[in-house]
Design the sequence.
């Protein structure tokens, strides 16, 4: 366990977060919040502690907190930890404005951020308020609920982007950005691996030809993804890594229905086309069967987007549903990126015959080859390629 996560550290975190210099921390219980490999660039710890106000002597006997050490698995001498800077900026600059516009929470409360001795963030643990990570892809009802909240988020950041464009420009290092060399290299390598496997599949010649053409245009398409133009109609601040691991859900257990959600992990948040989050929604949130309801999901998202903008008193032209469809078509290469490069993550457990997904293993080229050879993956990818390439 990390020795410096001690009484002094948590007192500083709570005094900063709650603006109270009189807080004194009592007993602390600390445990690992994730399994090995669960997070590529972070280590997460859960703490339970008590504290009192030495001035009023009021005691809070139970507080649950999350401590996230960003880039803890990298060098401790990092002076420019972009994921840390991005997440801190989201929490300190953007999320308060989003919540002020929406009059509702969109993320857990950040209490403290520090760069010493590691890049660390401390949050209130939303689990104590009934929120949970649900490690499954979702049915249509839940997908529509998530699309509704995403529409509000995008509307708020669309509005802020129009009012404060300079405040958005530094959110420019998304997963597929040319500034994220590791992310781009991973996508390129995965496309190459897939093509080299699919070339041996019977009946896939037509897809391999299309994929070779797709691969040759990949870098050009990636650059287009982050080029912000004045006439862009759906430029928002994307979550950037939207998947079911990064959403906390709250259920009404009596009626077994979803009543709220919070987004977490903003290390890859990026200002750009809303298609980034929307293709994540369609592939990394929904089941394959639910993706057949794409038009209904996008209409629900757009309706939420429009209603939120209207509630802000936004008076300029609001993008139409046709504009949204045009945006999705313009960046439809993300469909192949999701299907070929990201969706295989869901098949790791089949190859390794483990119950839990090992995220660290995802970056092993040999593992990706094994996944592409799975009959289950082949059955998934063929209709996606057929529809995308219209062949």
Sequence:
């Amino acid at each position: 366990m990390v020795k410096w996560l001690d009484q002094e550290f948590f007192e500083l975190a709570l005094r900063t977060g709650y603006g109270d210099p009189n807080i004194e921390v009592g007993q602390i219980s600390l445990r690992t919040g994730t399994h090995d490999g669960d997070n590529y660039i972070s280590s997460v710890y859960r703490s339970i502690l008590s504290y009192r106000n030495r001035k009023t002597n009021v005691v809070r006997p139970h507080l649950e907190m999350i401590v996230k050490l960003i880039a803890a698995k990298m060098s401790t001498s990092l002076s420019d930890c972009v994921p840390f800077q991005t997440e801190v900026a989201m929490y300190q600059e953007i999320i308060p404005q989003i919540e002020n516009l929406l009059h509702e929470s969109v993320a857990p409360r950040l209490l403290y951020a520090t760069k010493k001795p590691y890049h660390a963030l401390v949050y209130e643990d939303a689990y104590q308020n009934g929120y949970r990570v649900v490690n499954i892809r979702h049915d249509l009802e839940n997908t529509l609920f998530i699309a509704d909240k995403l529409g509000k988020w995008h509307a708020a950041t669309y509005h802020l982007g129009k009012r404060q464009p300079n405040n958005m420009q530094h959110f420019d290092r998304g997963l597929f950005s040319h500034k994220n060399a590791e992310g781009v290299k991973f996508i390129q390598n995965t496309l190459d691996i897939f093509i080299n496997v699919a070339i041996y599949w019977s009946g896939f010649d037509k897809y391999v030809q299309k994929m070779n053409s797709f691969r040759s245009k990949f870098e050009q398409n990636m650059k287009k993804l982050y080029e912000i133009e004045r006439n862009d109609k759906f430029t928002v601040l994307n979550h950037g890594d939207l998947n079911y691991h990064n959403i906390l859900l709250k259920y009404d257990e009596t009626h077994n229905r979803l009543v709220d959600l919070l987004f977490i992990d903003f290390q890859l948040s990026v200002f750009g086309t809303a298609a980034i989050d929307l293709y994540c929604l369609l592939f990394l949130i929904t089941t394959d069967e639910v993706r057949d309801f794409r038009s209904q999901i996008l209409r629900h998202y757009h309706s939420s987007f429009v209603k939120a903008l209207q509630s802000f008193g936004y008076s300029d032209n609001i993008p139409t549903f046709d504009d949204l469809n045009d945006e999705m078509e313009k960046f439809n290469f993300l469909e192949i990126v999701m299907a070929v490069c990201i969706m295989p993550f869901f098949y790791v457990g089949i190859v390794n015959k483990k119950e839990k997904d090992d995220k660290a293993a995802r970056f092993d080229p040999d593992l990706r080859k094994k996944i592409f050879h799975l009959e289950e993956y082949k059955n998934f990818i063929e209709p996606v390629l057929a529809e995308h390439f219209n062949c």
Notes: Residues 140-163 form the longest helix (24 residues). DSSP finds 14 helices and ten strands in the chain. Residues 72-79 have pLDDT under 50 and may be disordered.
